[in-house]
Write a structure and sequence with these properties.
about 90 residues; alpha+beta; 5-stranded mixed β-sheet; about 40% strand; globular
Length: about 90
């Protein structure tokens, strides 16, 4: 089983799923000030289909923003749909 990691630069970052040193899925975001991020893209390798990796990436992101007092704007269609289906995460929405 792979693991989810987080990477950030001064302009944005990503939560990504890595297996044997290879990144197979990522949810990327752009920083919009000190306390807001914009999720702009989610991509999951077809080999991971049916494993809920996209939702697991988003769960890690939600945990991170809660701990850091950050609000989220989900422009990515996948992330937006997942927020709508997951009421317990809607507290982090901007």
């Amino acid at each position: 089983m792979g693991q989810i990691k987080h990477s950030q630069t001064e302009k944005g970052g990503s939560f990504f799923y890595e297996l044997e040193g290879k990144s197979l899925a990522a949810m990327t975001y752009i920083l919009a000030g000190e306390h807001k991020i914009i999720i702009d893209h989610t991509e999951v390798d077809p080999s991971l289909k049916g494993q809920s990796i996209g939702k697991k990436l988003q769960a890690e992101l939600v945990d991170y923003v809660r701990k850091n007092g950050i609000k989220v704007m989900p422009l990515c269609p996948f992330a937006n749909a997942t927020f709508k289906k997951t009421p317990e995460w809607q507290d982090v929405l901007a």
